[in-house]
């Protein structure tokens, strides 16, 4: 395994302090390169979480006095109070931005969900919106968007609702994307799996509505039972890890979820479902890695855990195009036995997805299979509009 840098190790230390709501140690942070650590934290979208133990160490008020050990000045850099103050302010600003984002998103989400309920549309917030409640403070589980599963039979009504609220709409496979200044980004999910997911996963999650339970005070506000939430969390994390990579925030999520729900979860049920989905091995490794990194007992990592940690630290929160291409190539090359055949299959698969995948969330295409070439043409035309994204994909393919 590639050795983690000192700043990456420092980030893991701060995250471990944060999940237990403890301040960082003055001696441990002495000489810590806070600028480099902050850059890693931002890349993994854990800035607010990592900031918490530092802010607790420094005191609540900006500009509060620091002893020399707690300044956190990078090695070899002049220990000036001005530099120290600038670094502390950068961390506090990262925390403040996360608080503002959480406040804006949570208020907007509540209003949108209320509108959906008034219209008789069942809905369920997903992923980070649920996990936030298990963190020491909800803003510490940062997210760039809000994901909501909803009754797809009301898709046009939801579109009209979001447009009325000032959003612009785009369609991306299994979700409709709505954006509005200054920061709002809502993914309204037609289903829980993408058109690129395995058929087994698609079939399992296809009729998820009938598993969900209503909130006590709102029959249209639905939720998973804890076991199904955990299964979907594992599935979503594994999808990202296998497609393009996922960052250390995912491992923090595993730790926080198991700390919050672990003692009451029906592990036999979870093992049965994850075994059916082929994700039992991934879950075991991720849960064990989370326990060793952030648990009270710690422990040395085995080879699988070391590899997962290295992948997470290299990927960042959303992975990379290179990682997505690499993972796809590994599978295609194994199937075809040739690098050139794998490249050709990859490009053709991106341009001309099969009918079974394209029709998953498109009722018109389900009823009119002959229209598939038109949807391919639309897909290619959209790619032309997003030339930068496809140029990045092309460069990754050539590498």
In short, what is this structure?
The protein has 399 residues and is an alpha+beta fold. 59% of the residues lie in helices and 9% in strands.
Task: Give an overview of the whole structure.
- By secondary structure, the chain is of the alpha+beta class.
- Helices cover 59% and strands 9% of the residues.
- It has helices spanning 6-19, 26-29, 34-43, 47-58, 81-118, 128-131, 155-164, 199-205, 226-243, 248-261, 267-277, 280-294, 303-315, 321-336, 339-351, 355-358, 363-367, 372-385, 387-398, and strands spanning 123-125, 146-150, 168-172, 175-180, 184-189, 213-215, 218-223.
- α3 (34-43) runs parallel beside α5 and α10 packs across α12 (280-294).
- The two termini are 22 Å apart.
- Residues 62-79 have low confidence and may be disordered.
Q: What structural keywords apply?
A:
399 residues, alpha+beta, 5-stranded mixed beta sheet, two-stranded antiparallel ribbon, 19 helices, globular
Number of helices: 19
Distance between the termini: 22 Å
Report the uncertain regions.
62-79
Biggest β-sheet strands, sense, barrel: 5 strands, mixed
Compressed to H and E, one letter per element, the order equals HHHHHEHEHEEEHEEHHHHHHHHHHH
**Broad shape:** globular
Structural class: alpha+beta
How many strands? 7
The chain-level mean pLDDT equals 83
What is the share of helical residues?
A: 55-70%
- The percentage of residues in β strands lies in 5-15%
Gyration radius over CA: 23 Å
For the biggest β-sheet, the strand order reads 1-2-5-4-3
């Amino acid at each position: 395994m590639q050795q983690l840098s000192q700043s990456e190790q420092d980030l893991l230390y701060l995250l471990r302090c944060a999940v237990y709501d403890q301040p960082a140690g003055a001696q441990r942070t002495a000489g810590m390169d806070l600028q480099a650590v902050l850059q890693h934290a931002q890349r993994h979208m854990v800035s607010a979480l990592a900031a918490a133990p530092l802010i607790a160490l420094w005191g609540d008020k900006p500009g509060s006095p620091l002893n020399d050990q707690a300044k956190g000045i990078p090695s070899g850099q002049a220990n000036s109070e001005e530099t120290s103050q600038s670094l502390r302010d950068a961390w506090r600003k990262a925390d403040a931005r996360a608080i503002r984002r959480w406040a804006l998103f949570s208020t907007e989400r509540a209003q949108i969900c209320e509108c959906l309920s008034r219209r008789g549309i069942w809905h369920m917030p997903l992923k980070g919106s649920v996990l936030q409640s298990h963190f020491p403070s909800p803003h510490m589980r940062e997210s760039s968007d809000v994901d909501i599963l909803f009754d797809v039979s009301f898709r046009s009504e939801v579109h009209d609702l979001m447009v009325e609220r000032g959003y612009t709409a785009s369609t991306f496979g299994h979700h409709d994307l709505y954006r509005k200044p200054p920061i709002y980004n809502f993914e309204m999910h037609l289903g829980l799996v993408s058109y690129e997911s395995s058929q087994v996963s698609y079939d399992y999650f296809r009729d998820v509505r009938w598993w969900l339970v209503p909130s006590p005070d709102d029959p249209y506000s639905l939720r998973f039972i804890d076991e199904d939430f955990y299964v979907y969390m594992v599935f979503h994390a594994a999808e990202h890890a296998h497609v393009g990579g996922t960052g250390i925030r995912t491992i923090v999520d595993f730790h926080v979820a198991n700390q919050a729900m672990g003692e009451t979860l029906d592990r036999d049920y979870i093992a049965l479902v994850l075994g059916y989905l082929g994700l039992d091995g991934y879950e075991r490794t991720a849960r064990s890695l989370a326990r060793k990194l952030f648990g009270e007992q710690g422990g040395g990592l085995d080879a699988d855990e070391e590899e997962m940690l290295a992948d997470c630290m290299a990927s960042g929160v959303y992975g990379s195009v290179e990682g997505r291409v690499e993972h796809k190539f590994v599978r295609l090359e194994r199937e075809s036995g040739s690098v050139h055949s794998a490249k050709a299959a990859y490009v053709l698969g991106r341009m001309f997805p099969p009918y079974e995948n394209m029709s998953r969330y498109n009722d018109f295409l389900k009823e009119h299979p002959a229209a598939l070439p038109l949807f391919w043409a639309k897909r290619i035309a959209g790619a032309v509009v997003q030339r930068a994204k496809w140029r990045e994909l092309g460069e990754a393919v050539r590498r």
